[in-house]
Prior knowledge:
The protein is mainly alpha-helical. About 40% of the residues lie in helices and about 5% in strands. The chain contains twelve helices and six strands. A two-stranded antiparallel sheet has the order 1-4. Strands 2-3 form a two-stranded antiparallel ribbon. It has a two-stranded antiparallel sheet with strand order 5-6. It is elongated, with a radius of gyration of 23 Å. The N and C termini lie far apart (about 50 Å).
Amino acid sequence: MLGERLEKLLAAVQEMAPGARGRAYVDAGPVLERDAAARAGLGWIGKNTLLLHPQRGSWFFLGELFLDLELEYDRPLRDRCGRCDLCLKACPTHAFVGPYVLDARRCISYLTIELKGAIPHDLRPLMGTHIFGCDICQDVCPYNVKNQAMTAEPAFHPRGDLRAPELIPLLALTDGEFRRRFAGSPILRPKRRGFLRNVCVALGNLGDPRAVPALARALREDPEPLVRGHAAWALGRIGTPEARRALEEASRHEDEGAVRSEIAEALGMGAPVPEGR
């Protein structure tokens, strides 16, 4: 949608300046979007490494239109973060090395979307119930808190079927069902195996025994070793007798080395320590 509007803008520019050439980019191509936007006066790069605008916060999308025309330059905005460090303190995985510096390898958005393999064990308990991306460092930003008006653009409204879905049924999705349910959604990016990996971690962190049958079935039957391994971890986190029986049964039949390692470690976890201890 944003790309289509940039193409219309290019057409309008070419009507005003015949012969002008241009190219639009939206989250694609070798473009440092935030830096270009900051130099264009659309905001400043905040301590959470996102572009912030005093009236819009960081709740907006960026697109670029490159032109072979001389244009007047806008002045950059000064940094207005001041002494605020709410975003740095709020990150569950401690992904911020310091102000303005993000270790993407610890960022929940990276872990749930871009990472293709197993999620590091030490980060799994810190991820909570996030199964696709994370906005915590945006949610706590004062510039976003005071600018929370719903967009008038229908294309940006949330899809009702994607709003906080029940996690347990997601484990039963086949590849075809996954692609059909999330067609037209960025959730397709991690593919089924990455998405269900995330669901397993979330269920493990919830610690709800009702998830054990679905996790046990995933550990026993899922075609993806990545999903089976994280299902084993989740069962170990839940730690009920039923969960341990599922792990022990799987240990006698699993052939994949990485999954066997996950099962062995899960069996050594024991029951999770209750919160507040």
